[in-house]
Design a protein that fits this description.
Strand 14 and strand 15 form a beta hairpin. The radius of gyration is 42 Å and the shape is rod-shaped. The chain is of the alpha+beta class and 458 residues long. It has four domains: 34-138, Chitinase A, domain 3 (Roll); 146-251, Chitinase A, domain 3 (Roll), CATH 3.10.50; 258-362, Chitinase A, domain 3, CATH 3.10.50.40; 371-454, Recoverin, domain 1 (Orthogonal Bundle). It is built from eight helices and 22 strands. The structure holds calcium ion (2 copies). One calcium ion binds at residues 386, 388, 390, 392-393, 397. One calcium ion binds next to loops. Residues 433-447 have a biased composition (Basic and acidic residues). Residues 433-458 are annotated as: Disordered. Keywords: Calcium, Endoplasmic reticulum, Glycoprotein, Isomerase, Metal-binding, Repeat, Rotamase, Signal.
Length: 458
């Protein structure tokens, strides 16, 4: 019988037979899995071992080149444990020792693949399989966070702890380098409390013990990130996440204003306090050194009256107790600055850094007052005021009297306001009948006046 003859075919005697043969497959029982590396990334932190969970792309073909399956056609990686019998034997072996980003061809003889039965309609019996594989991701269920410290500033007096509020920038990528998110793109830091479950477990843990300005790479396995489900179309299931973070600042809601005196003049008797009129120079920066504001941008130093809420609370405190010529560095947490909402040019919840120098200090008077006695004041008042003793006090005499009190250090006028107009106001308040002079009857004895009512008066 002619095994290769077509049924009913007629082969004449002495015929020469010509066969056109296409070899589809060839293997030998002694064959092993063959691995050919196509490309390897330059850096490779670890390679796959049995019990790892891996995610990879592949094109599967028969030895003839006929395709039978591809992960690319499904638009998602093939995800599986390695070396635990979840894969055909040849792949459990052929995928060992791979780096993320590595491409290899794995050739699997049928007895390490689907053998005599083949697989579905595309893999015939006894077929050798050829897989071109790209490893996208690997982790081990036993993995913890991996932290690489990239950059620590020279001075680091304090490190993040549970309950702190941190602002940081980050680039988020997968292990193959594909970016999935970046705070830089949004042009604003990511802000969160630390250790209170507001961020994925791995990040919450990784944010401890950081310095301001520090840069770290944090590699988080999926069981400490978004798990088997991932997040929508952004994070695939079982993905390892790589974050490159840069700490901009952090603070604790309990933080006070931090004042460091960098220069103190030898003579330092008179210091600033509430109601004083001061002039000061300043630079205001973020903790990463970004300059926000500076008095240098103006022709003259800044002027303010302390205690009037004209500057942020932290600056008020930073400017208090200074003597002229003193210089300070002041760190102001956001709850003493512009808070959670920020301000023009000041990011939300930003810690501010001020360099301050007190340039001028004029002692002040309480709010609402134009003049205060620094002691008890003359009693009775009128005879003291009536310098020439003619029982009447016109504006000029009143003015001379007030200026004498100031000169002798017995009284103080409100600083920063035109002296003549203050004195004129004070005179007009006392000159009840508006005849241009004060007489004794018009002068209300100071002792009978409640303190609050004597605003603008003696
Ligand atoms: Ca007089
Ligand atoms: Ca009068």
């Amino acid at each position: 019988l002619c095994a290769y003859c077509p049924t009913g075919g007629i082969i004449p005697p002495d015929a020469v037979l010509v066969y056109d043969v296409l070899l589809l497959d060839i293997w030998h029982p002694d064959d092993k899995v063959q691995i050919r590396t196509l490309s390897k990334p330059e850096s490779c932190n670890r390679t796959t071992v049995a019990s790892d969970f891996i995610r990879y792309h592949y094109n599967g073909t028969l030895l003839s080149g006929q395709a039978f399956d591809s992960s690319y056609s499904r638009n998602s990686t093939y995800d599986t444990y390695l070396g635990q019998g979840d894969l055909i034997k040849g792949m459990d072996e052929g995928l060992l020792g791979m780096c993320v980003g590595e491409r290899r061809v794995i050739i699997v003889p049928p007895f390490l693949a689907y053998g005599e039965s083949g697989h579905g309609t595309k893999v015939p019996p006894q077929a050798t399989l050829v897989f071109e594989v790209l490893l996208a991701d690997v982790f081990n269920p036993k993995d913890d966070l991996i932290v690489h410290v990239k950059e620590v500033p020279e001075t680091c007096t304090r490190r993040t702890a549970t309950g702190d509020y941190i602002r940081y920038h980050y680039n988020g990528t997968f292990q193959d380098g594909t970016a999935f998110d970046s705070s830089y793109q949004r042009n604003s830091t990511y802000n969160t409390y630390i250790g209170m479950g507001y961020v994925i477990q791995g990040m919450d843990k990784a944010l401890h013990g950081l310095c301001m300005g520090e840069k770290r790479r944090i590699i988080i396995p999926p069981h400490m990130a978004y798990g088997e489900n991932g997040v929508g179309k952004i994070i695939p299931g079982s993905a390892v996440l790589v974050f490159d973070i840069h700490v901009i600042d952090f603070h604790n809601p309990k933080d006070p204003v931090e004042i460091k005196i960098t220069h103190k003049p030898q003579q330092c008797d008179l210091t600033s306090e509430a109601d004083d009129l001061i002039q000061y120079r300043y630079n205001c920066s973020l903790m990463d050194g970004t300059l926000l504001y500076s008095s240098d941008q103006y022709d003259s130093p800044s002027t303010t009256t302390l205690g009037t809420n004209s500057v942020i609370l932290g600056l008020e405190e930073g400017l208090s107790g200074m003597c002229v010529g003193e210089r300070r560095e002041v760190i102001i947490p956001p709850h003493w600055a512009h808070g959670e909402n920020g301000a023009a040019g000041v990011p939300k919840s930003a810690v501010l850094f001020f360099e301050l120098e007190l340039v001028d200090l004029q002692k002040g008077v309480p709010q609402g007052y134009m003049f205060v006695w620094l002691g008890d004041g003359p009693d009775p008042l009128f005879p003291a005021m009536d310098l020439n003793g003619d029982k009447k006090v016109p504006l000029e005499e009143f003015s001379d009297f007030i200026m004498l009190q100031v000169k002798e250090g017995k009284g103080r006028l409100r600083p920063g306001v035109d002296t003549d107009s203050i004195i004129k106001d004070m005179f007009n308040n006392q000159d009840v009948n508006k005849d241009g002079k004060i007489v004794e009857e018009e002068l209300k004895p100071a002792s009978e006046e409640p303190q609050q009512a004597s605003k603008d008066e003696l």
